[in-house]
Design a protein that fits this description.
139 residues, mainly beta, Immunoglobulin-like, 4-stranded antiparallel sheet, 2 helices, 9 strands, 47% strand, elongated, binds calcium ion, C2 domain-containing protein, Perforin-1_pore-forming, C2_dom
């Protein structure tokens, strides 16, 4: 598999003199992150009923966005995909699952993952119950 970040660096190196080639190899490559296939199972109920779940997505210090709210659904899935072009290898992606409520949203759990090159499918157990499933491609 040829990653986008690596191939762009190689393209630059082939057209530039040695000095820049060295600089290129020293710089930290920024790659594309794509997060998709977000779904959850067994989200907990509270006094107000079944969870109205949504997911907030972060990468490093940046916020990538959040999904729509799936009302009254313990096993929701979200069609949103998140793409981020400035991710670095070993940077931490953070997914927060929240229950939307009238006044204060509840945080159901946090999933953190260090980015590795490739495509991965993960299950993450949420602190307050339920599991978040997601897939990411990085490279
Ligand atoms: Ca709720």
């Amino acid at each position: 598999m040829i990653s986008l970040c690596k191939s762009s660096c190689e393209a630059m190196a082939s057209s530039l003199p040695l000095l820049l080639l060295v600089l290129c190899s020293l710089s930290v490559a920024q790659c594309q992150l794509r997060l998709f296939n977000l779904r959850a199972t067994g989200l907990p109920s509270d006094l107000l009923g079944t969870t109205d779940g949504y997911v907030k997505v972060f990468c490093g210090a940046d916020t990538l966005g959040k999904t729509s709210v799936r009302n009254d659904n313990a096993n929701p899935w979200w069609e949103e995909e998140f793409t981020y072009f400035k991710a670095q290898e070993n940077e931490v992606m953070r997914l927060e699952v929240h229950d939307s409520d009238l006044l204060f949203d509840d945080l159901l759990g946090v999933c953190q993952r260090q980015l590795k090159l490739g495509t991965y499918e993960h299950d993450c157990y949420l602190e307050k119950g339920g599991t978040l499933h997601y897939t990411y491609t990085f490279g």
